[in-house]
């Protein structure tokens, strides 16, 4: 994955978990290029699938971004870890999000203080009416 001049993301990956080659418009907010260690391609897949494809307006809304990080965590636990049980288990989306932010330069400016953002996200979720237990 690389950031090309003009703000386009270019991804070329071929592994058991991913197979794609595409260009995605970069963030108009000037958040910079994405970088992730090559030794863990599952992180690239999760980030690309759930974060990098979001419109810039959603990237700027921390609560909405956390909804997508939570979806990314469920995908990781339910799909990727089922296929590859040797991958580490994260007990909750909080630990998953903290790990992703610590390893991903793209997320650092979006979620500079994961603990406070997670607290804000939980408070927001309590306001959402749900049916059932």
Could you provide a short overview of the structure?
The chain is 47% helix and 13% strand.
Task: Describe it.
- This protein has 133 residues and is an alpha+beta fold.
- It has 5 helices and 3 strands.
- The protein has helices at 41-52, 56-60, 62-83, 93-103, 114-126, and strands at residues 2-4, 8-14, 19-25.
- The longest helix has 22 residues, at 62-83.
- The protein starts with a strand and ends in a 7-residue tail after the last helix.
- Residues 1-39 have low confidence and may be disordered.
| Distance N to C terminus | 41 Å
**Helicity range:** 40-55%
Q: How much is the average pLDDT?
A: 74
Class by SSE composition: alpha+beta
Q: Largest sheet, order of strands side by side?
A: 1-2-3
Kindly provide the radius of gyration, computed on alpha-carbon positions and rounded to a whole number of angstroms.
15 Å
Spans where pLDDT lies below 50 across 5 or more residues: 1-39
Can you write the helix and strand succession as a string?
A: EEEHHHHH
Distinct helical segment count: 5
The proportion of residues in beta strands is: 5-15%
Number of strands: 3
Shape verdict:
globular
Major sheet: size, sense and barrel closure? 3 strands, antiparallel
Oligomerization state of this entry? single chain
């Amino acid at each position: 994955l690389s950031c090309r001049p003009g703000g386009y993301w270019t991804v070329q990956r071929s592994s058991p978990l991913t197979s794609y080659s595409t260009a995605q418009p970069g963030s108009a907010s000037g958040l910079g290029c994405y970088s992730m260690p090559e030794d863990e391609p599952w992180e690239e897949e999760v980030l690309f699938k759930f974060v990098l494809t979001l419109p810039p307006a959603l990237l700027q809304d921390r609560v909405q971004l956390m909804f997508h990080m939570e979806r990314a965590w469920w995908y990781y636990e339910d799909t990727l870890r089922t296929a590859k049980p040797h991958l580490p288990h994260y007990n909750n989306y909080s630990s998953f999000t903290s790990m992703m932010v610590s390893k991903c330069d793209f997320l650092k400016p979006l979620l500079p203080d994961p603990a406070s953002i997670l607290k804000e996200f939980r408070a927001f979720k309590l306001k959402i009416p749900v049916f059932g237990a």
